[in-house]
Write a structure and sequence with these properties.
Elements (H helix, E strand, L loop, with lengths): L1 H12 L7 H21 L1 H7 L4 H21 L3 H4 L1 H6 L6 H17 L1 H9 L11 H25 L3 H15 L11 H4 L6 H11 L9 H24 L1 H8 L1
Length: 250
C-alpha cells in the first residue's frame, strides 16, 4: 500500500518541473486569496469566525477538503482505472479504493507544512491540541475510505454515480465549515450540522490550534455514527460485489 501511494503521488506530478511542490503551492495560494477576499473586502465576516488568524482557519479547512474530495471523485472510477491490474493481482478488491485514499492522504501529509508556515508567518502558537492531529487524520481516513468504497461499489452498476459524487463534492464545500463557523447558526440547528461528518473532522483539525473548537460529546457522537455507517455500508457493498468486480474486468 505504501509503494502504491508513492507511485500515485509521483505519477500525479511527474509532468511538472516543480513536482510535488505544487501540492504545497496550490493550497497556500488559495488560502491567501480567500483570506484577502474575506479579510479586506468583507472584514466583518472574517471577524465573526472568532478563531484568529483567519487564514489558518481557511487552510485547515481547505487541505482536508482536498483529500476528501479526491476520494469522492476518484472512488466511483477506481475499477475502471485499475481494471487490468485486477485481472492478475491477488490483492483483495478493497485495496483499490483504499489506494485512492492513501494517495490523496499522502498529498495531504506533504501539504501540512503549509499550516506551520502560516502559523509562523501570522504569529500563531502551538497548543496542547496538536496531540489531536493524529486523531483527526485517522477519523478522516475512515471517512475517506468509506466514501471511496461506497463510490466504487455503486459505480460498478451505475456509472452516473461518478457525476453525482462530483456534484456532491461541490455541495460539500459550501455545507462544511471551511469558510464559516457552525456557531453562526441558531443553537437548535447547530447539532444537526454534525449530520455532515466532515464538520466533526474539521473541528478536530482546528482543535489542534484552537482547543476550544472541539465539539460537544453529543455532536461528536452524531458524526461518528454517520462515519461508521458510511464505512460499514461501503465495505459491505464492496464485499457483496466482489464477484461482479471480477466479471467486470475479465
Amino acid at each position: 500500500m505504501r509503494l502504491m501511494a508513492r507511485q500515485d503521488v509521483k505519477s500525479s506530478f511527474q509532468n511538472y518541473r516543480l513536482g510535488v511542490i505544487w501540492a504545497l503551492a496550490e493550497p497556500f495560494a488559495l488560502a491567501l486569496l480567500i483570506w484577502v477576499v474575506f479579510s479586506f473586502i468583507r472584514s466583518g465576516r472574517a471577524e465573526s469566525i472568532g478563531l484568529d488568524p483567519f487564514v489558518i482557519y481557511i487552510v485547515t479547512g481547505l487541505l482536508p477538503f482536498q483529500w476528501l474530495v479526491r476520494c469522492m471523485n476518484k472512488g466511483p472510477k477506481v475499477f475502471k482505472r485499475y481494471g487490468e491490474m485486477l485481472m492478475s493481482s491477488p490483492l483483495p478488491v478493497w485495496v483499490w479504493p483504499i489506494r485512492v485514499v492513501n494517495a490523496a492522504g499522502a498529498e495531504f501529509l506533504i501539504s501540512i507544512p503549509v499550516i506551520f508556515a502560516l502559523m509562523i508567518l501570522f504569529g500563531a502558537s502551538i497548543t496542547w491540541g496538536i496531540a489531536l492531529l493524529p486523531v483527526a487524520i485517522l477519523v478522516q481516513y475512515l471517512l475517506g475510505s468509506g466514501v471511496a468504497m461506497l463510490g466504487a461499489a455503486l459505480g460498478l452498476r451505475v456509472p452516473d454515480v461518478a457525476y453525482l459524487f462530483t456534484v456532491m463534492s461541490r455541495v460539500l464545500f459550501w455545507t462544511s465549515p471551511i469558510l464559516w463557523n457552525g456557531k453562526d447558526f441558531p443553537e437548535p440547528i447547530q447539532a444537526w450540522l454534525y449530520l455532515n461528518p466532515f464538520h466533526f473532522v474539521l473541528d478536530l483539525y482546528r482543535a489542534t490550534i484552537w482547543p476550544e473548537a472541539l465539539p460537544t460529546f453529543r455532536d461528536a457522537m452524531i458524526s461518528i455514527v454517520v462515519i461508521a455507517a458510511i464505512f460499514i455500508t461501503g465495505s459491505v457493498l464492496l464485499k457483496l460485489r466482489v464477484n461482479e468486480v471480477r466479471r467486470l474486468v475479465s
